[in-house]
Amino acid sequence: MIKDMFGTNRLKINLHLHTTQSDGHKTPEEAAAIYREAGYDIIAITDHWKYRESGAIGGLRTLSGAEYNIGGGNGAEGVFHILALGCSREPHIPREAGPQAIIDAINGCGGMAVLAHPAWSLNTVEQTAGLEGIGATEIYNTVSDAGESSRPYSGDFVDASACRGRLYPLIADDDTHYYNGEDETASYIMLACGPQATDAELLEAIRRKAFYATQGPEIHLLREGNRVTVKCSPAVRISFFSNAVWARGRCFRGSGLTEGSCEVQPFETFIRAEVTDADGRRAWSNTMDLRQ
């Protein structure tokens, strides 16, 4: 746990990793040791079609998890990978289940259904428009860059969904498979929640967007009237994204930037921000609803 620039306690969490229980290259014990050494407070082990209860491994807390993947490898035919996080019991999901049935089963067990790596899966807004009950999605997925697809970033999907009123909480995680120095301990969330929080309280904090997603930098998105401001750790780039395809003053470049702000226009319905530090590490805010 660390304190952010405002003095808020935050937990360092990776919500997506694999072990030898499915197609990961480390055992659960080895994976937990790697993340514990890197200062993580919580991980979720999300092996494919292999549910793992909440608990602890080697002193590191684990949130219950699994990943249910359907659709094979052809994105044109519809590929969906859905994480089950924080379920109080195992969702019993048949292999022939569709995405909505998987989401319903996860929610029915008190968990959160997370749409994993939509860019990697080539998910479209049209594919997901009819799906109800998605609790969050991934804005960044480390292995999708460190692995084979080079599609780790899902910002286009996130913004197109937000244009249609779906403002998902935005998670960054590793989806660790290889443990080769490229896909582990790289992307995570910093959750404003106490260490004694229950699983249900952790999920509720994620639903409330009480976190930021990051590879190291700190980012906070604030609003006062029509002005939206980013406060962050030193960065070389601060960028705003909304349903405005173009607007003045939405990207700031320099050295040691710690703040950037912009005026929102009357037609804008959402906005989010990203920062990049001098080492190329990025952080992502959640999407703010400007209609409220």
Please state the overall shape, judged from the principal axes of the Cα atoms.
globular
Oligomer state equals: single chain
Q: What structural class results from the helix and strand content?
A: alpha+beta
Average pLDDT level: 97
Describe the structure.
- This protein is an alpha+beta fold and 292 residues long.
- The protein folds into two domains: 2-214, TIM Barrel (Alpha-Beta Barrel); 219-289, Immunoglobulin-like (Sandwich), CATH 2.60.40.
- The protein is 16% helix and 36% strand.
- It has six helices and 18 strands.
- Strands 1, 2, 3, 4, 5, 11, 12, 13, 14, 15, 16, 17 and 18 form a 13-stranded mixed sheet that branches. The protein has a five-stranded mixed sheet with strand order 6-7-8-9-10.
- Helix 1 links the parallel strand 2 (9-17) and strand 3 (42-45).
- It is globular.
- It starts with a strand and ends with a strand.
